[in-house]
Fold each of these.
Amino acid sequence: MRSAAAVQEHAGAGVQPEVILEVKDLRSYLFTKRATIKAVDGVSFYLRRGETLGIVGESGSGKSIMALSLLQMEPKPAGRIVGGEVLFHGDDLLRKSQGEMRKVRGRRISMILQDPQTSLNPVFTIGNQLAEAFVTGQQESGRGRVAKAVVDVLRKVNIADPERRVTAFPHQLSGGMKQRVVGAIAISCSPDIVIADEPTTSLDLTIQAQYLRLIKQLQDTTGVGVIFITHDFGIVAKMCDRVAVMYAGKIVEHGPVRSLFNHPSHPYTQALINSVPKLEERTERLYSIPGQPPAPGQELVGCRFAARCEFADERCRQEYPPQFEGLSRESEHTADCWRLEDPTWRPIPH
Amino acid sequence: MLRYLIKRLGQTVFTLFAVTVIVFGLGRLTGDPATVLMPVEARQEDRARIMELWGLDQPLHVQYWRYISNVVRGEFGDSLQWPGRDALELVLLRIGNTLELGLAALLFAVALAVPIGVLSAVYKNTAIDHAGKFIALLGQSLPHFWIGIVFIWIFAVNLRWLPTSGRGTWQHLVMPAVVIGWFQVAALMRLIRSAMLESLDSEYIKLARLKGVRERVVIWKHALRNAAIVPLTYFGIMIAYLVVGSITTEVVFSWPGVGLLVVNAVTARDFPVVQAVTIVFAFVIVLANLIVDILYGVFDPRIRFE
Amino acid sequence: MSEAQASAVGAGPTKARLLWRQLRELPLLPIAIILVVLVIPAIFAESLAPHNPYSGSLRARLQPPAFLGGPSEFLLGTDHQGRDVFSRIIFGSRIAIAVAGAGILIGGTIGTTLGLIAGYFRGFAETVVTRLVDLTLSIPAILVALVVAAAIGARFSAVVAIVALVLWAVYARQVRAEALKWAQSDFVARARVAGASHFRIIVRHILPNIANTLIVLSTLQVGFVIVFEGSLSFLGVGIPRPNPAWGLMVADGRIHVVSAWWIAFFPGLAIMLTVLSVNMLGDWLRDRLDPKLTQV
């Protein structure tokens, strides 16, 4: 967890660092023959320079589609961004052409995908794929300089003996190493933001911790901002400065990590926190949230979580709740829940 | 990689062996190989020589042994049409021509199938895709012998752009190569299309795009390089089809290859030549398959570095 | 809210409407061509053909088609023996269907049977069958036909036999793969537990499931057989003269292509149209019934 002092240091002058990414009411739908799936249904958040924002949600909450939509890479042919703004340094990415977006991708904003087994092209060496990242991002030119840059970045991601590894094919590397290479590709052009979409989910548990440490290390040295997408609240606690909780295409709660953990204000957040097994406690059973997320394509009104929420009433089912701010005296802590009309209310389970 | 090679080699040997058995059996179908292997008007000493060579008065297994040792030594006897000319020699003289035609056809097929296949995949379900499918389907439905004649009539007789028949300049090669090659375009293009579709759908393509790589490079470098491995396995079958196609096509265009040779030999009941051609063809096909499999191993890094 | 598993699509259309919609999606052009060029002439040859396909008068030889200025009784002209090309093509369709039908029936039956045995019983039977299939498919059929013809001459039965010899392997390979898959399924296991005999399981449970594959495969093979028979006849090792096999007609017409191109052109066109239509139908069927069928 980065200390406030570290954040100050990067920003200078004792104020919060500038906001470099602002997402406003992003809507990205999937249009299939059978139904229209509102995968991302009005999502808003922001990211400051150098900070780590966690996006948490179950699978199917729309996190991955949202991440891809930020770079206009929504899955074709069904996906289409239907509304909202993605302001990167004040510039709306959604208004850019594909040609302009290509200059952003990899260079200003890069992404790490979930499964290292399939992320790398099996027929090209990792040296080749890294070199391409440098050349495409116009960071380097000339065989010699590119080759050196490749070796350097491999060293930065803690791959031993990088000179030899450069000629290796992906299938010759372990899963953890592959994911490091993917990480290397992501930071090769010194981007402002790295979007990490469940980067450790496919890795062995023992390797996960190593990889998370690597991400933090890279952040400390380069000051890059990270959007960390995960379903694991435990990782959020370790890695993130702020966190946004996503459910059925909407962000239901959002705020600094400490504040969220100490005062979870949305019933779903509380449930998620409960489901993280704590080593110190002895629990009889693992807690899991009863019920299912809404079926994709289903037309919904009202709060999306109402069906599974023990605090829901008729109004919750009919009307989508407004956003309540300033929870637990943190200006940045917000949540969308009708119960919060009562400022002292907390989603304590019975 | 070595284990893979050895396995393939073993299969090759087995197939060749089986082919010789089949040809041997077919040759003795009528029950009396003497009628098959010797013309009615053969002289007494020729008869004796042929009886000696094939052991025709011996029991079957002795015959087969004699047969195999002959084949291995390349001894097929003399042609019945041209006594005094060794059957195998006749075949080997012309095999180069047939291979030349086959290669040209292969190049044509690949040159046509790759762009059509890639574009069909990239522009899936659009007019381009349907047009590509139709061109391919058309090629597959055109009988070689007919379209060859039609081509001759259009391009040689009427337009006078190309020669009617025979071998000589590259112009002689064009029509027969196109006729044979077009047939293969359909299957090849379908393979490339589906391989491309799968490749384009993969995570590594997504990552390449996320790197900011230009779409043209994504398609023709990243996706195609992966997709290209798939049709390679079809090359083996394709070579067999090229051989088959060359037979009728050589007849239509009077191309002096092995196909024309064998058809004439069949009409003239020149069994030694027919036998020689069959074994050589089988050998070429099997060998080509082996080479293709080796190439496959070379091109797929996952097999090369095991 | 949890009972709202309501499907996103409203109440479905009536059964009749669905059927009509499906019928409209049939590939009508290919089917029409197949009927017109292959099926109807084969059945009604005697009524449809204006002339006898076997006899011609030398006075009427090499006449151009009626629409090109020739005598009006010969729609597509006459060949070098004065025979009416149109009538010969009509009767030729019978030969094409006969060879294709017989070949596919025999080859398909043998191949399916062996494929089922190989896929269901596995073990030694499977090894033998797969080896035989590989071997058969690695030897070009035309070569076999040529060798046989060199030995015993061209005849109808030989053509059918060779076709069957090639097709059985194609069927066996496909059926074996499918049988393998179905043999592992749940209801087969249940039937086995219930004590059903192997034969009963294969016929009652596995066979109906591979019916789609068989239909698609057979349709796709028709085209191949017609071209193959055409090639054999063209080379003189298929259907013997003077039968009006389309391939034979093309061969005869080849020598006259400069002066009388119609002799070779129209029979070949018949082959091409038939095969193209059959292939299109086969493709369409495959997309509907069995998209997994890998085809080359």
Amino acid sequence: MAKIIFYRQKRRDDGIHTGIEIDGYTAMEQEEGIDWDNADPILVWYVELRCEGKKLPGKAEEARKWLLEQGRFIRESLVSLASELQVGMDYNNWPLLWTVPNAPRGVRMSVACHAMHRADALAIAEVISDVALHWQERIEKLSVPERA
Amino acid sequence: MKKAVLDTSVLIRHWLNRRGRMRGEVTVAVVKRWARELIELERSDAIVTPVYVEMIAGVSDKRDLLLTKAFLNEFRCIDAGLIPEQDWRETVRLAQRVPHDSKPRQLGDCLVRAIANRLKYNVTTFDTGFAR
């Protein structure tokens, strides 16, 4: 079963890390504003879209293309989750794992979120909406990580 | 797997949530399953030695110790118990930084952060007082 994960996470040093993982390996990523000299690695929040299925693509560019093709469905699902979260959820049950209903045939999708503070948990709906709003441009901006 | 260390607060919260829902006896097999559930949920099996020690330091009896060790053994201690001098220097640097609220810093938090920085890991925590 192949796995593709889109993630976006914010650190306490205000750095934001966005990327795609395929079967546990970072296939594409982008870092914004991480100051490695004053690094604070504490995650303030993260949002992940986890996809699992036998026919998912296994290469970086194919995975990007697939995520873009599913863009409309994914954006609508994220907006729907954000609306549910605006009502509020029991923070003691976080991290949240939400199964995406009516996922494309042969694919299981879920959204996982974590927030360090209760206040961030309340604001996570906005983060999810933002991920939905900028889905296409963020996926397009990702690049293959440099290998050491 | 995600490159994120799971802090003690994450492990404890998961443990308490699962124990709260548990009706039968808590056994070694059960706590191992709890650990694997957390690893799947967080997509990380990474802890560091201070987290291991903090968990062990919270046990209340021999059976609790057995169960906690079984739970922890499902995780991977990314520092392998080897904490070099540079981590201690970084720990001191973090400990001497006084935050706006002047709250005292915890040894464990500073050390976790130092190890995570060196190994280029993030830290997942619910501890809002985690050393800045």
Amino acid sequence: MKKWLWVLGFWFLLTGLALAAKPYKIGALFSITGPTSFIGEPERNTLVMLVEEINKKGGINGHPIEVVIYDTEGDETNAVKKITKLCVQDKVLAVIGPSRTGTTLAVIPFVERYKVPLISCAAGVKITEPVKPWVFKVPQTDRMAVKRIYAYCNEKGYQKIAIITVSTGFGQSGREQLKMLAPKYGIKLVADEVFGPKDVDMTPQLTRIRAKNPDAVICWGTNPGPAIVAKNMRQLGMKQQLFMSHGVASKRFIALAGEAAEGIILPAGKILVARQLPDSDPQKKVILDYIARYKARYGEEPSAFGGHAYDAFLLLSKALEKAGADRARIREALENLKGVVGIHGIFNMSPKDHNGLDEKEAFVLVRIHNGDWELLER
Amino acid sequence: MGELLQYFLSGLTSGAIYALIALGFTIIYNATEVINFAQGEFVMLGAMFMATFLGKMGLPLPVAFALSVGLTALIGILVERLTIYPARGASVITLIIITIGVSILLKGVAMFVWGKDSLAVPAFLGEEPIRLFGATIIPQSILILVVALVAVLGLEFFFKHTLTGQAMRACAANRLAARLLGIKVEPLVLLAFGVSAGLSAIAGVIISPITFATYDMGTMLGLKGFSAAVLGGLTSSFGAVAGGFLLGLLEALAAGFISSAYKDAAAFVILLLMLFLKPEGLFGQGEIKKL
Amino acid sequence: MKLNYGIWASLALVLFVFGLSNTNDYFFNVLNVLGLNSLVVLGLALLMGYAGQVSLGHAAFYGLGAYTSGILTAKYSLSPLLGIGAAQAVVLVSALLIGLPALRLKGHYLAMATLGFGVIVHVLFKETISLTGGPSGLVGIPPLQIFGFTLLSSREYFFLIWSLVLLILLFSLHLAHSPFGRALLALHDSEAATQALGYDTSRLKLLVFLLSASFAGLAGSLYAHFAMFISPTSFTFLHSVKLVTMVVIGGVASLWGALLGASVLSILPEVLTVFEDYDVLIFGAILVTIMIFLPDGLLKGLNNLWQKRKTHG
């Protein structure tokens, strides 16, 4: 009789262990290849590194993390194909990504349909406004970026501004914010030009802008277009101050734009100038620590974009700790996270705010000088 | 006024590129009656090679130039030998698909070798713009115009005053008669492909500092160069060059005064108009269509 | 080729059984895309194989069908069936506008004209952002609703799409074997001779062109509702080329060959995703090789190889 008890007990133990050790399966969509690979690649690298690290420590609540990563190639159609795979075939608990506003907006109807929490690494304000129960995002909103630039323009007395934006979701989101917020800062938009993501010549648009004689030019897009805009402005002999969006906050941009990058001002996450931050900043340690680990693992420093994946996984792991392997409970947990110190800010989520970042702390202003980032204003 | 001049200058620059590509089309078409849809990829290869030799490896400019153009010309010859020659009896549609297949293949190889990112190429003569009556032009653009002119004149000389060039013209006019005169057609076809690929490579090399080198830059350029060739007339070298410049100018003016968004469509609207109204092109001669 | 109901019926039976027994959504998705491509390709085969006209811009009709249905249902809440009707109207009108002048051209001039048309339509998709959503695509297209029944699952779409494919296949086979079809074949061989026989060749060509555009437009509408998201990257010159390749690979003057070609080229990318970045390279290589060595298409080519085997036994 005792023997049977032992066997039964052992069997229960084994089953329990098997269940306990069952990995938490999460999914990720990044633009690892394609024109926005400079965003997706560091994001993928960061996520892989973080998952490795956390598994070495025994996983979350004893469960190892298994991550399925797909490449969207920065293409909406591809992203839609892959999200279905993740939600239906791979049956993941949550999805991190995608990297771009366009791809995020494309997959949202699907995560809502399949009821899977999505933590996007894209910046467009439309992603979390209006709030959608299953959709979260970690990057600062473009609205905050615009406000930062306009506030600086007020300081410098730039009143007549020309904007040139890319026709993608990110660019158009920025354009909307630029147009909407201009009157609030007493700024007059004298030109509103658009270019396509694959265009290689923006001189027609810039020629028209030049004729309007603006005080400054704001360009909104991700590589490689803005690099060409910067070069074209040089070509046309335009001397106005050029502002960029945080979409170009990577060394890639400086490499492409070459000399034309000198003097460009843009809002960026603190990670770009971490060493120049005061020690009293609570984020400084977290950021420097991340940079060191990434460098040790990959041999180079991460870009601002890698930080988004860091923040997304940080939030998700905290949610998993609380909720376990249940999509709906993870969603609830995410929505109530408070005081999480991440790379791009301190997150305070709420049912009404699925971005969780404070406007004032979100961005710093940096200027490109001698091929590197220089902290201009906190 | 400054604006009009600016658009004009930018149109001249892209026009020169289209002219070179269009010339490439006409040379192959006249030698083999094949429309080479892979023409744009030769442009891309020239640019990519330049990015490697000049940008990455830092070789001296003339060496990088010669290597880029020479290698691409070689690839052009390989393409003829491996894909066009074996299928020489095939129908029009088959040949079109083969060249399209080659274009896809070349793109795939480029993506494999150089990756999907844009590669920067240093400008040959610096980047300081030169002011000109309210408009500006960068040294690279002037270089593009000069190189294009030299290439076109060189080609003219080749076709009119060298024996090989004249032999090629004979083949184009009437292959059978040329054969009967003892002209070896096959090597000339190879030469045609090599020269055509080389010309497109030159276009790719000189435009790369401005547009960056990307594995998929060839498709649109090829199609537009092709529209330029149709505009000028596929049977006429002069037409190809004229068509190229005309297309560049029309495109720049449309982008400047109408809308930059629909700029890409402009080239093809022009293409359609030409095909419907005068398919032989502005300077081409009417062809006798076999029934 | 004789009209063989047997093959058609066997195909229908196999598909029916598969539809009932399969549980893997991934397979349904792949077959649905294959089915949609088949719809387009059947029309293209009639145009190219029978009438001998080349179109390098058919992705445009596919896209026009998709965007019209998509925009009307997503932005203006029109019922999907009405949307499909409207899409057909748009597609037929544009086919008429481009067909009338273009079909007077021959050989590679016609190819160029259809190419130009395709690119212009693609640019329109990309740039009319307020209407189409631009490069970021059109989101929120509702699923198809027929008489109160909403199609949500891939299996439901599988049955719908393949029923349509089978119907249209039957229709096309009948057409091909009818006097109309024979007139088309004659047209392919020699337009002058067909005219001499008293046929209005312009009208014939235009009719086939409109028919092929209509099939493509229908496939596009279905695609929009199935995928619930469309973007300009699906309707490029490259896609038109893929469609033409499907027809040619299968064997130009053969409807069954066209289906075979569509199958090969729709399934190939799925197989090739294993190779990730090499898939473009491999696709190009396969294309070139098949066109050089089997210019009559896979069906005839493989058949010939088989015959050779038998005789050399």
Amino acid sequence: MASLVLTPRFPVGRVSSPQEIGLKDGDVPATPLAPGNDPADRELLERHRRGDASAFGAIAERYSAPLYNLAFRLLGNREDALDLHQEVLLKAYRSLHRFRGDAALRTWFYRIAVNTAKNRARFWSRGKRGPTLSLDATAEPGRAMIDRISDPRPSPEGAAYGQEIQVRVQRGLDRLPLNQRMVVVLRDVEGLDYREVADALGISLGTVKSRLARGRNSLRRDLADLLERDHHDVS
Amino acid sequence: MTCPEFIDLLSSRIDGDLTPPQRVRLEAHLQACADCRRGAEQMERAVAWVRGLERLPAPPPPLRLAGLAQTRRSAWGALRPLALAASAVLAALLAWEGFEALVTPGPATSPALTTSTDEMAGARDSSNANPTLAAPSPTSAGPRVLPAPAAVPEPAGELDPRLAATLPAEPPASTPAPGPLRPSEPASQEPVYARLHGRQPSAEQEDQGAEPDDAGSVDSAPAPGGGVRSAPGEPVGPATTVWIVQPDAGAPTPSGATPPAGTTGRPAAPSHTGRAEAPSATESRPAATEVAISIPVVAWVDADAVRFGDPGEEPPGELDRAGDTDAGTERAPGADLVRRGAETPRPDADPRTGVTPPVPLERPRMALPSAPDPDAWRLLPPLSLQITIAADGRVVRVSPLPWPGPREVAEALAGAVRDWAFLPAELAGEAIATRLELTIEFDAR
């Protein structure tokens, strides 16, 4: 029987080939490297399965910011994003033992997040929560969106794009139907490729492309006045 | 193609996902159509804006992950902040302090519970303790019969690697036949699980029992959690049997094989340590058959106690709890177990191995140790225990498998499971001792 092969330490952020990670002929990894599954993730997963209590903390640290950004772009406000973010991490903690490594851990986290967000959207749509916070937040008078999306320390990117663009783009995302918004956010905000988006949402590649096309086109129309102005400014 | 049809291609154009013919036709159209050209430019810029949205940092306060590897003295106590935060239905900010507490406790990799508190204390101190099985004492080790790994039927993708890892890697040069399971006990029509249950087994009974490795490490200590006692349990549904090791002749027996003549007909256990030891003429230890069975259990946590039941079962209501007895009370009489054992439907035998899985008959409630907030329990990931069930239905050994949750919880639950009673597994119509995995999932209502 093949014994469990512990993953050596690798540079974070890229997938190594078996030769690169020092496997020799005849060595059999416990599980093959799933496409897109980061070796560092695999090592952390292995530690978690061995009962290393610190491993999940490291995993949470890796995915905390991406999950929070995803949640914020999907929900449109900090409070709900924070809530979703925490719920996703707790769900992951409770169920990480079921993760078998046949998909990328990142995709698995995103899948939990979008499913949780979908459930919440259903909850809101049944009217159990009263006025929707996420989708209508930008319409609230006297509460500028930028107050909620900007960090007190503006980044160079934020300054470059300008406050108005940031606000309008987020508003445009908020106005998209949830299924289109999820695809646009996963693809264009989180940078997943088509296959990863399809895996995270549990939909086909064709559905990903069509939803992305419709979502981007709606966004373009929603931002038309700003795009025209920007075009004239540039020219 | 019309302009709207070309517009539909603009998204794929941004991602470079057009086929060559589509690209040629689209670019030609864009050259000719000013509206579509402007639409393409606008979509590119809109997508660039989305991609340039400001990235928010991880929620404050920042993770202090550097300290996560530390093992705190009382991990369970450290879980309380999480419990308090989570009790607000996770709506409020779950402070990272609390989350850190959740993941900080040392791994529950304590070895099997033993009769000796000194041993347990020693195990706690050992950071590299074998998480699955206690190392047997050399002086008390019985005969070990190792199967030929190549002959073990092992369905791909179903075998839990933790259980698989307990299998011996190499067969011994020679594999003597094990002694009979209970050589001195006459055949009886009465189910032995009922006769023996409910009292501390004597040394003689221990020898007659089915502990495989080392009778000296059989856990007969009171449950650390303290609370045991008689709440009638419902049988768990059919478990998943994957494979069985039949070590009669030093090699696994395929499904349906009959035990060799000259034995009692009961299989003996392979070693879990991968070591082969010849039996002495005067010492013949009973053995357990290791089966890849996982019994799922759900734990409902209330303010004062943990109750066990089947997944999908409704949690017990107030009336059901009224009959609960607390620690120190007498267990259900054996006759009651006999009756329930007779009434309990048997799950189907595994077609490949012929083993009928054991069924829990009695799962007494367990008092909450140190009574932390019950919500803290509900956040815990499932705990897997490796248990050995004797042919009389008693649980004779419990070992928590690696678990990121608090060690105290794992030990308390292992102690509680020690007091469960099972309808034992059967092979060819006879009760057999088995070693298997029990997974406790905490109710997350």
